[in-house]
């Protein structure tokens, strides 16, 4: 299912996380995707556990595991639908991990389209990721993921921000 990107394995310049403008939440999802892909490529490494831990750390004890499981469902849907591999970037490579593979880029753009309600982009990226096969399972899981991320963002907005305490120093 997965193929790790090796340095210089293709001639074109890959898009970076910064260039794509991924939010902190989206970067956490990308990290979970990569860890799940690492697990598919080497099942003995149990990086799926790290994917869940990453989600719990970044999204909290309540929503984190839910988000992690939905990301796993997205990847499983892709695994069952695609006939070719899913290229991903190895997190252990410091020079590569800031870049997105074509498949990671399509996955993140699908998530962005789902979150923003861009139906045409959503369908296009799902079709690309599923290689023209039925994308309904992937789209259903992606919708769940977008809802969970929106709920997480809403909770963050509702947390009151306390003004910093001011300390005065008087001299005589």
What does it look like?
The protein is mostly helical and 172 residues long. The chain has 6 helices and 2 strands, in the order βαααβααα. The chain has a two-stranded parallel sheet with strand order 1-2. Helix 3 (47-81) runs antiparallel to helix 6 (136-158), helix 4 packs antiparallel against helix 5 (119-129) and helix 4 packs across helix 6 (136-158). The protein is globular.
Q: What's the SSE blueprint?
A:
Layout: E1 2-4, H1 17-20, H2 24-41, H3 47-81, E2 86-88, H4 102-116, H5 119-129, H6 136-158
Q: Counting H and I runs of at least 4 residues, what is the number of helices?
A: 6
Overall pLDDT: 87
Judging from the principal axes of the Cα atoms, what is the shape? globular
Indicate the structural class. mainly alpha
Helix percentage? 55-70%
Distance between the termini: 72 Å
Q: Work out the number of β strands.
A: 2
Query: Largest sheet, described in full?
Result: 2 strands, parallel
* Neighbour order of strands in the largest sheet: 1-2
Provide the gyration radius in Å: 18 Å
**H and E string:** EHHHEHHH
What share of residues are in beta strands? under 5%
Low-confidence stretches: 5-9
